[in-house]
Write a structure and sequence with these properties.
Elements (H helix, E strand, L loop, with lengths): L8 E6 L7 H16 L3 E4 L4 H12 L3 E6 L4 H6 L10 E4 L4 H10 L3 E5 L3 H12 L3 E5 L9 H8 L7 E5 L2 H23 L2
Parallel strand pairs: 1-2, 1-5, 2-3, 3-4, 5-6, 6-7
Helix pairs in contact: 1-2, 1-7, 4-5
Length: 194
């Protein structure tokens, strides 16, 4: 009998810069490793920077990786958008722009992890919040990640259904996210089976 494996899709969002802080990059690699080791799928914006570090971590354990590109093909991905040709990544070329790419990316996942980040990460965070997703924040990773508590405090809308988890430890953060996804799925299954 075939066993159905229901993998979790977990996104990693953060600054796509090339100038990374080594201590943060190391933690993001661990996030990618943990997602891969648990048999789940890492989803990114098919970029470098901190999300690219998560890809490196997932690749170390032969994890499944999906990247959403704003381009229409590999040539445009590299030459127009200046994005890397990540190895071992299934790239979905959306033929849109960064804004629509972010929407499609976030729509495909059950949870997203915010690491550092600038304006693009803030946009992804807003979509995560409005979509009622599970959000993990790697604490003390600077940028947008360090603003999430303040944003939530000032603009909290519990009726949207999002959950936010904060942790400095990347392994614990991934574990907590996976546990929340399991609980959310169980509740959904219970509603279906009533």
């Amino acid at each position: 009998m075939n066993k159905v494996v229901d993998k979790m899709l977990i996104g990693v969002f953060g600054a796509a810069d090339t100038q990374l802080k080594k201590n943060i990059a190391r933690k993001v690699r661990i996030i990618g490793e943990e997602i891969a080791k648990s048999g789940n799928i890492l989803v990114t914006g098919s970029c470098g920077g901190y999300p690219g570090e998560a890809v490196e971590g997932a690749n170390k354990f032969r994890g499944e990786i999906i990247g959403f590109s704003p381009a229409k093909n590999l040539y445009e991905h590299i030459n127009k958008y200046k994005l890397p040709d990540n190895k071992n990544v299934t790239v979905i070329y959306t033929n849109t722009n960064f804004v629509m790419r972010d929407f499609l990316n976030v729509s495909s996942i059950e949870a997203g992890i915010i690491v550092n980040g600038k304006i693009g990460t803030l946009h992804e965070l807003c979509i995560l919040l409005e979509s009622g997703k599970i959000i993990g924040v790697l604490e003390k990773s600077e940028g947008v990640a360090d603003l999430v508590k303040l944003i939530n405090l000032k603009l909290e809308k519990k009726e949207l259904g999002y959950k936010i988890i904060y942790d400095e430890n990347p392994r614990e953060l991934v574990k907590k996210i996976e546990d929340l996804i399991k609980k959310k799925r169980k509740k959904q299954d219970e509603k279906i089976n009533r």
